[in-house]
Amino acid sequence: MRKNFGAKPFLYPQPVMIIGTYDENGKANAMNAAWGGIVGMNEIMIDLGSHKTTDNMMKTKAFTVSVADTAHMVSCDYVGVVSANSEPDKMTKAGFTTIKSEFVNAPVINELPLVLECVLKQVIDGSKFIGEIKNVSADESILGEDGEIDLGKFHPITYDTVHHGYYELGNRVGNAFKDGMKLK
Fold first, then answer.
1. Taking 90 as the threshold, does the pLDDT of residue 172 lie above it?
2. Helix, strand, coil tally for the chain in percent (to 5)
3. Number of neighbouring beta carbons within 10 Å of residue 52
4. What is the CA angle 100-154-148, rounded to 5?
5. Which residues contact 1 (CB under 8 A, 6 or more apart)?
6. How far apart are CA 101 and CA 76, in angstroms?
7. Per-residue pLDDT tens over the stretch 10-54
8. I need a surface site. Which of 25, 123, 124, 136 has the fewest CB within 10 A?
9. Which residue numbers delimit the Flavin reductase like domain (predicted)?
10. HSE-up of 6 (CA within 13 Å, CB side)?
């Protein structure tokens, strides 16, 4: 037996993305976004309402997308519930420090180990922001012996749209492009 829920945003896992931008004075800002994901080899799309961050994106035509992790879950949630329009020290209160991206005019949050550095390509329907990924950088602490991102060392979180919780991603359960070959 199946239960129908109607049209809902129930796709799992749902990434928790921290969108970083600079304002007109070069001050770093960040917000939490859950509705979005990769839409091509070098593109990402994020559905956002109207925020200080979206205003910044329209002015600078650039943004970063950091992946929220377990260690910084409270700070990542904070930047999602507090607006830079009402809290000028939002980044400091979150415990975030930044450096300027080498590739785009947007901040890299030092505390979050994985970041996509993007230029704004297009806005669809006034809220869907498509970015071209110019660079991905990762802190060495999440790299494996092969020099690539190691999910045994990196602990991204996912958002539960139904119960409004954050969950850490779990263990490896298979091998892509290999395990399915058993059924050939």
1. no
2. 20, 40, 45
3. 17
4. 80
5. none
6. 19
7. 888 999 999 999 999 999 999 999 999 999 999 999 999 899 999
8. 25
9. 11-156
10. 0
Class of domain 17-183 (CATH, top level): mainly beta
Point out which residues pair with 124 in neighbouring strands: 128
Question: What is the signed CA dihedral for 9, 67, 145, 173, rounded to 10 degrees?
Answer: -20
Backbone angles phi, psi at 83, to 5 degrees: -90, 140
pTM of the model: 0.95
Tokens at 147, concatenated: 């020099």
How does pLDDT run across 70-100, given as a tens digit for each residue? 999 999 999 999 999 999 999 999 999 999 9
Rounded Cα distance between 149 and 113, Å, is 10
Total length of the chain? 184
Residue spans per domain, the chain: 17-183
